[in-house]
Amino acid sequence: MHPLPGYWSCYRLLLLFSLGVQGSLGAPSAAPEQVHLSYPGEPGSMTVTWTTWVPTRSEVQFGLQPSGPLPLRAQGTFVPFVDGGILRRKLYIHRVTLRKLLPGVQYVYRCGSAQGWSRRFRFRALKNGAHWSPRLAVFGDLGADNPKALPRLRRDTQQGMYDAVLHVGDFAYNLDQDNARVGDRFMRLIEPVAASLPYMTCPGNHEERYNFSNYKARFSMPGDNEGLWYSWDLGPAHIISFSTEVYFFLHYGRHLVQRQFRWLESDLQKANKNRAARPWIITMGHRPMYCSNADLDDCTRHESKVRKGLQGKLYGLEDLFYKYGVDLQLWAHEHSYERLWPIYNYQVFNGSREMPYTNPRGPVHIITGSAGCEERLTPFAVFPRPWSAVRVKEYGYTRLHMLNGTHIHIQQVSDDQDGKIVDDVWVVRPLFGRRMYL
Ligand SMILES: [Fe+2]
């Protein structure tokens, strides 16, 4: 049934009005907002992504001096993104990649166009090669409401504590919520961190709406897969980001499970050919294979989908990651922190009784989903499992320091305890023979 013409034009006016009210003066704004960085995978580069409410040119001006003119210029493109909500709000997402950056050097930049510029931000170009010691902040499940870890992450970032961020799925709660206004609010909230550090992501279940379209549109990850899966090298590590969600939202394409699995296998093969240069293989995916939380999530099931695959046998990831000697698996989804003993198929494979994480004979799993969101924390099952080493039901996030090709330092920061380190462990593996755990 069609509404009467009068109603229709009223509705249209309302719609136009609500679409238009973005800037503080009520006019659609050409000023950049939601500025964030990501590493596109080629050494010496960095991508700047931002949003405007009208189409404008996409330019980044940058330089080495903290004040004064910014002598360098890079141009990019924008794409309109229409949210799937009833208002069909339209954002213009701009992307500009800076190239030939000097490794380890700090740059100042602003983005926008003659119609409006962002404020100035600073970032340090990633160093090249394997022989340096990257520091990462790692967490998942950070919402626009109750983002507990964010103030400390901002301070850490200002102090130059990290080289990059890994956000292991579940953003904003949700990016699409309230006609994607919650997504806008979230992207503004993380700007003080994400405009200064490459903010590397993988999708979680909260990004599912409209086929992950807000996630795909708002982030700019390496590769040609809209950020659903990709890999990149950082210092002594090869980092693989993938979507656990392909196993759960099959209506978006069952073939994605197979496509991703095949990509993972070929990427792991390549990573192993290059293992002497980049010894660590680290994965990040949202839903864990194992967890000891008191809920009914996939990871609490003995044959979790992520671990064993569809119908308990198709495209399970535990065998694949074990076969290719993955060192460290980063997960989130459970709103807590849990570190497992080195594990394969429910068996604990500690290096030794005294030093369980020195020469472990199975991958190490870290579940870090307690950065803070409106759903608050997830309780643990009363009795810990024999494969669970440490459990922390407190807000916080993980610091990961890759010292070199043999030593990784992992610390869990508690926001409930004002930044106290509540878990601290070194993972040590020999330089050679990394592929085989046997
Ligand atoms: Fe989740």
UniProtKB/TrEMBL annotation:
InterPro entries: Calcineurin-like_PHP, Metallo-depent_PP-like, MPP_PAP, PAPs_C, PAPs_N, Purple_acid_Pase-like_N. Residues 135-337 form the Calcineurin-like phosphoesterase domain. One of its GO terms (molecular function) is metal ion binding. Keywords: Glycoprotein, Hydrolase, Signal. Transmembrane segments: none annotated. This is Purple acid phosphatase. Residues 362-423 form the Purple acid phosphatase C-terminal domain.
